[in-house]
């Protein structure tokens, strides 16, 4: 037998066909896995890009808020509200009981505990 006929007999044999098919199958599976992974990575990148845009927007809002907090108007307003400061010639008027009723109304509106109606009436009439 000559070398070319032996070569063609090996290539046309079933064992070679099976080995070549398995190799092709292995390479195909590797390619499919890499394509699937690439698609997953692209999805993750797009999700991260949207997160980045969202965080950049929040960052801009916070920067604007910081700039507002540093303005003299904000400092004056906070000094008036929290510290009761006043300009020369101004008079501060304090209404007694107003702060307590405002605090009580905000506390009762934020209560998430269920109170039966009859107990509300008892509390209303007897002040408990």
Brief summary:
The protein is mostly helical and 128 residues long. It has one domain. It is elongated.
- The separation of the N and C termini measures 113 Å
> How would you describe the shape?
elongated
How many strands appear in the DSSP assignment?
0
How many distinct folded domains? 1
How large, in whole angstroms, is the Cα Rg? 39 Å
Briefly note the structural class of the backbone: mainly alpha
Instruction: Report helical residue fraction.
Output: over 70%
Give the count of helical stretches: 5
Question: Which percent band covers the strand fraction?
Answer: under 5%
Round the mean pLDDT to the nearest integer and report it: 84
Mind summarizing the main beta sheet?
none
User: Which series of helices and strands comes N to C?
Assistant: HHHHH
> Which runs of at least 5 residues are low in confidence (pLDDT < 50)?
none
What report would you give on this structure?
It is a single chain. With about 130 residues, the protein is mainly α. It has one domain. The protein has 5 helices and no strands. The longest helix has about 55 residues, at about 15-70. The mean pLDDT is about 85.
Salient structural properties:
128 residues; single chain; mainly alpha; elongated
Topology readout:
Elements: H1 3-11, H2 14-69, H3 72-83, H4 98-110, H5 117-126
């Amino acid at each position: 037998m000559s070398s070319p006929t032996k070569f063609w007999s090996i290539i046309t044999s079933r064992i070679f066909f099976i080995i070549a098919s398995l190799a092709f199958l292995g390479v195909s599976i590797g390619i499919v896995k890499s394509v699937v992974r690439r698609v997953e990575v692209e999805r993750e990148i797009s999700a991260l890009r949207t997160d980045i845009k969202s965080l950049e927007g929040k960052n801009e809002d916070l920067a604007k808020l910081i700039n507002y907090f540093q303005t003299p108007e904000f400092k004056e307003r906070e000094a008036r509200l929290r510290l009761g400061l006043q300009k020369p010639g101004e008079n501060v008027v304090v209404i007694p009981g107003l702060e307590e009723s405002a605090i009580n109304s905000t506390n009762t509106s934020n209560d998430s505990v269920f109170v039966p109606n009859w107990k509300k009436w008892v509390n209303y009439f007897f002040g408990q």
